[in-house]
C-alpha cells in the first residue's frame, strides 16, 4: 500500500506566518533548544496539530525561520550596497547588534541540525558571491589600494571583524575592538572614491 502524501498548509497563510513569528520569538527569548510544537503553538495561540500541519518536522520549521531571517538580512545588505556610501553602510550592517542573538542561536543550531546547516551554508555562499560582485562593481580598480585584498576577501574580513566585535561585546569583552575599528576605518578611507 502506498503511503499518502502529507498535506502542508499554504505558504501565504496568516497562520503559517504566525507560527514562524512565534518560533522566532521563542528562539530570541529562550534559545533554539526551547522549540517544540507545543511551545510554538502555545506562543501562537494555536493547537499543536496546526504547527505540524504547516511544518511536518521541526527541521522544516527551523529552516523556514532561518530563511525568513536570511531574507531580512539580504534586504538590509542590498539597501546598504545601494546607498550613497555602500562600503560604510555594509560595515554598519555587520556591526549592527539587532540580529546577534538570532545569529548565534542559528550557528549553534547548525552544529546539531543538518537541514539548518545546509540552508545556512547555501545562503551564505550565495550572499557572499552577491556581495563580491557588487563590491567588484563599486570598487573597480580602487581595491588595489588595499594591498593583497580582493572583493571576496574584503567582504569576508568586514563581516568577520564586525561579527567578532558584536559577539565579544555581548560577552563584555572589549580588548582590541577600538583598534580593529580604526583598521577598518583606515581601509574604508583608502577605498573611498577620489573627490575631484
Automatic annotation (TrEMBL):
Query: Which SUPFAM superfamilies does the record associate with it?
Result: Homeodomain-like
Domain HTH tetR-type per the UniProt entry, residue ranges: 13-73
At the top level, the lineage of the source is Bacteria
Going by the UniProt record, its keywords in alphabetical order are:
DNA-binding, Transcription, Transcription regulation
Q: Does the keyword ATP-binding apply?
A: no
- Indicate whether Lipid metabolism appears among the record's keywords: no
Which sections of the sequence are annotated for DNA binding?
A: 36-55
Matching InterPro entries: Homeodomain-like_sf (IPR009057), HTH-type_TetR-like_transc_reg (IPR050109), HTH_TetR (IPR001647)
Q: Which PANTHER family match?
A: HTH-TYPE TRANSCRIPTIONAL REGULATOR BETI, HTH-TYPE TRANSCRIPTIONAL REGULATOR RUTR
By what name is this protein known? TetR family transcriptional regulator
The species is Novosphingobium indicum
What broad taxonomic lineage does this protein's source fall under? Bacteria, Pseudomonadati, Pseudomonadota, Alphaproteobacteria, Sphingomonadales
Amino acid at each position: 500500500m502506498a503511503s499518502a502524501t502529507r498535506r502542508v498548509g499554504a505558504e501565504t497563510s496568516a497562520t503559517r506566518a504566525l507560527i514562524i513569528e512565534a518560533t522566532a520569538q521563542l528562539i530570541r527569548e529562550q534559545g533554539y533548544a526551547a522549540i517544540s510544537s507545543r511551545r510554538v503553538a502555545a506562543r501562537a495561540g494555536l493547537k499543536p496539530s496546526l504547527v505540524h500541519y504547516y511544518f511536518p518536522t521541526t527541521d522544516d520549521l527551523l529552516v523556514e525561520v532561518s530563511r525568513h531571517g536570511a531574507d531580512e538580512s539580504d534586504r538590509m545588505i542590498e539597501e546598504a550596497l545601494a546607498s550613497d556610501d555602500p562600503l560604510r553602510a555594509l560595515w554598519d550592517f555587520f556591526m549592527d547588534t539587532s540580529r546577534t542573538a538570532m545569529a548565534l542561536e542559528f550557528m549553534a543550531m547548525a552544529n546539531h541540525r543538518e537541514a539548518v546547516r545546509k540552508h545556512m551554508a547555501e545562503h551564505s555562499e550565495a550572499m557572499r558571491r552577491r556581495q563580491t560582485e557588487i563590491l567588484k562593481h563599486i570598487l573597480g580598480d580602487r581595491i588595489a589600494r588595499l594591498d593583497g585584498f580582493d572583493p571576496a576577501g574584503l567582504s569576508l574580513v568586514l563581516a568577520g571583524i564586525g561579527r567578532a566585535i558584536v559577539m565579544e561585546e555581548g560577552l563584555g569583552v572589549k580588548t582590541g575592538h577600538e583598534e580593529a575599528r580604526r583598521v577598518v576605518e583606515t581601509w574604508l578611507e583608502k577605498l573611498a572614491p577620489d573627490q575631484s
